[in-house]
Specification:
The protein has about 325 residues and is mostly beta strands. The chain is about 15% helix and about 55% strand. The protein has a single domain, classed as Lipocalin.
Length: about 325
């Protein structure tokens, strides 16, 4: 399974459930307002959404806006093109082991598979706009424009169908402001702002019902977006280069959901309801780049931490637990 299909599988894990411990919260008002028979399925779906959303956000955002790059590119005519695969050390709910109840809410610990990669393929580009103001052996105030694109394919597999009504690609953008441009004596230092989003996704998932038949969950208008600030420094040598940075991520996710469950041969369908989550986390990362004849091969390791997400049901690892992630990529720069 390639990276983009694994990413779809991670999204599916976040929602098909309606078909240690996390921070506890009250049950979702949208779920308690439903018929008794669909309240539990509704709450499981919301909790797994809350639990997976920060992991998906970290997989999209990654670390450095341009792998291996600290300062600006050097002004008009300079550019960088790259592809990367981000992967978070995730805890993915085991949806095939969860059976929603039909007698109202049931608070429990939902099973997860730990150390499960949550990956995301991303392509990015940077274009030099302004070299900066000369100051000794460096330039100050250079500007680069950043562009990125994420990809999610349509999928129809087993009991899950995934479609992207507005297209499988989603473009993002950003800006890099140079504090110092890298030279022989000076490291490159910059501040970046970057927005990365997923394409809008619609899903229809099915699971075996405790009351016979198939439970279904319809997900519409699923949007996962991130914004990230970074302070990055880098220094390149003949064969390799180093970069490190710190920043803040903000993840914003939303969706519209409708659940259908079966009990004693009777079908119960919830009303369609909207829910979402916003999470802010701290991001630390370090890059190692190897200079090949034409391309740079870059590896990155990082960690996200913090946040204030919470769930009604519990999970083996806290929803706000620190998460390690890694990235590998190739970059061509001029």
């Amino acid at each position: 399974m390639n990276g983009s299909r694994i990413a779809v599988a991670a999204l599916a894990a976040a929602f098909v459930a309606a078909g240690g411990s996390a921070g506890a919260q009250q049950a979702s008002p949208q779920c308690t307002a439903q018929q008794t028979q669909v309240q539990d399925a509704c709450q499981i779906a919301v909790d797994i959404f809350q639990y997976m959303a920060p992991q998906l956000g970290a997989a999209i955002a990654g670390g450095n806006a341009t792998l291996g790059q600290g300062g600006t590119l050097g002004g008009f005519g300079h550019f960088s093109l790259g592809i990367r695969a981000n992967a978070v050390d995730g805890s993915v709910p085991q949806v095939n082991q969860i059976t929603p109840g039909t007698n109202g809410l049931q608070q429990r610990t939902l099973p997860t598979k730990d150390h499960q990669p949550v990956p995301m393929p991303v392509a990015d580009a940077a274009f030099g706009i302004f070299r900066g103001i000369p100051m000794g052996v460096t330039n100050v105030g250079g500007i680069d424009v950043l562009v990125n694109v994420a990809y999610i394919p349509s999928l129809n597999q087993n009991d899950l169908s995934v479609s992207t009504p507005n297209g499988s690609l989603k473009f993002g953008y950003g800006l890099r402001l140079g504090v110092l441009q890298e030279s022989v004596l000076v490291p490159g230092v910059s501040v970046t702002y970057l927005k990365r989003d997923l394409p809008e996704v619609s899903m229809l998932g099915q699971a075996q019902s405790s009351g016979g038949g198939q439970d279904t969950l319809s997900i519409q208008n699923l949007n996962v977006g991130t914004t990230a600030w970074r302070l990055v420094a880098s220094k390149h040598f003949v064969v390799f280069g180093l970069a490190a940075g710190v920043g803040q991520d903000k993840y914003s996710q939303s969706a519209s959901v409708q659940a259908n469950v079966h009990d004693s041969g009777i079908s119960y369908t919830s009303s369609t309801f909207d829910f979402g989550q916003d999470v802010t986390r701290t991001n630390l990362f370090a890059d190692l780049s190897i200079n090949l004849p034409i391309l740079k091969l870059i590896g990155e390791v990082g960690q996200v931490s913090g946040g204030s997400a919470s769930t009604y049901n519990s999970f083996g690892k806290d929803v706000n637990a620190s998460r390690l992630y890694g990235s590998v990529g190739l970059r061509f720069a001029w």
